[in-house]
Amino acid sequence: MDADDLRIVDAVARIGSMNRAAAELNMVQSNVTSRIRLLEEELGVQLFVRHSRGVEPSEAGLRLLSYVEQIRALFQQAITAVKEDGTPKGKLRIGMLETTAGLRLPTLVAQYAQEYPRVELAVMTGTTTSLINQVVEHELDGAFVAGPVHHQELSEELLFLEDLVLVSPLSVRNFGDLAKVENLKAIVFRQGCSYRQRLGSILDGLGIRYTVMEFASLDAIITCITAGVGITLLPKTLVERLWTDQSVTVHELPVDQAQVETVFVRRHDRYSTSALNAFLGMSRQISNIGTLDRQVEAID
């Protein structure tokens, strides 16, 4: 079994047809069929179940497929490592929370793009849960997520501490007013967002009833909050930038509810390229962890 065998298995399983898989792979169908048959003989198991509509992976085939993406990623990492000469270049895929992108992305990306023009940087946004899964599955080189994470396949580095605040329409002056709002709407990101989970815990702890309005983007949430549709939970620094006209009420929270860590996660076993090292180095330069430590020392 070699890399070409795995590439063929992946294509056949994904497409569900030997003929169409052969077309995608620029091979003749007889060659694809022969390679699958020889691989099955070598392994002593049936990898595909044939039926009138095509083929589908057997249980043994599914077990093999679970390793295909990992092996493909390892091949790509090997190629990257061999070509590595210490100069940041090539593709770099970074994940971020929408709020992190709003707070940190403009400065970070502008500086990085200027200093390392040979890097093809792609930034994807998502929830903490979805981004962690993408890093684990080798779809991202790393991601900024809400921590702590404690995942056995990932390393994490604390880079930012944010203070969250509850944002509401001006008519809601305090938490007493909040409890009196009829049909209260919690404006949140989709499932898997740590801010959504925390807002739910806060409202549940106060015994406040609410319904959820779910959005996929920070811009949509901001628009709804500005229009007075409901409430949300956002980093205080971001809120101060967005609502300079004081058109909303900002509610401070207890420290244990307000403070959230933003950590950078990446796989333990993934080769760390010059492009990723440079990106992490730049992220550490804008980290507020050292600043916060100095503030605490000054207070002490």
From TrEMBL:
PROSITE patterns: HTH_LYSR. One of its GO terms (molecular function) is transcription cis-regulatory region binding. The keyword DNA-binding applies. Pfam families: HTH_1, LysR_substrate. Keywords: DNA-binding, Transcription, Transcription regulation. Residues 1-58 form the HTH lysR-type domain. Gene3D superfamilies: 3.40.190.290, Winged helix-like DNA-binding domain superfamily/Winged helix DNA-binding domain. Belongs to the LysR transcriptional regulatory family. This is DNA-binding transcriptional LysR family regulator.
